[in-house]
Amino acid sequence: MLANRNIEVHSMKTINIANDYTKFPAGRYVEDGPFSGERFRKEILLPALEEGEKVIVELDGAMGYGSSFLDEAFGGLVREEKMSPDQLCNIIVLKTIDKSLKAEIQDYIQHAEINE
């Protein structure tokens, strides 16, 4: 896990959710459907972060995002993966033309609490 170690950023990786995952992200948990926030976090986002990469997440192109998807994908990095919000701000870059979407994700990260 990344929580209690310093992450050295070795490279940058871009994840375009619409192209690399799905144009129809939905649901919080894996049991909610094939393109859930939990699956995105565990199978795509977290592996990139664990490789020591700064990750650019391109959000444009998907047909919309439910709050449950966004909270689980990004807030779940704090709650479930025990990463600090400050740490995430240094290694994840959110790219979108929708400023409110970016603010919503940042809010999920900042207000998530680590599950014990």
Describe the structure.
This protein has 116 residues and is of the alpha/beta class. The protein has one domain (11-111). It contains five helices and three strands. It has helices spanning 17-21, 37-50, 67-79, 85-91, 99-111; strands at residues 11-16, 53-58, 92-95. Strands 1-2-3 form a three-stranded parallel β-sheet. It is globular. 28% of the residues are buried. The model is unreliable at 1-6 (pLDDT under 50).
Mean pLDDT: 91
Q: What percentage of amino acids are in beta strands? A: 5-15%
The whole-angstrom Rg is 13 Å
- Helix-strand sequence: EHHEHHEH
> Which structural class should the secondary elements be placed in?
alpha/beta
Oligomer: single chain
Helical content stands at 40-55%
- Shape, principal axes of CA atoms: globular
Q: What is the domain total for the residues?
A: 1
- Terminal Cα separation, in Å? 14 Å
Give the tally of β-strands.
3
* Poorly predicted parts: 1-6
Instruction: Count the DSSP helices.
Output: 5
Biggest sheet details: 3 strands, parallel
Q: List the strand order in the largest sheet.
A: 1-2-3
Write a compact overview of the structure shown.
With 116 residues, the chain is α/β, with parallel strands linked by helices. The protein has five helices and three strands.
Keywords:
single chain, 116 residues, alpha/beta, three-stranded parallel sheet, 5 helices, 3 strands, 45% helix, globular, disordered N terminus
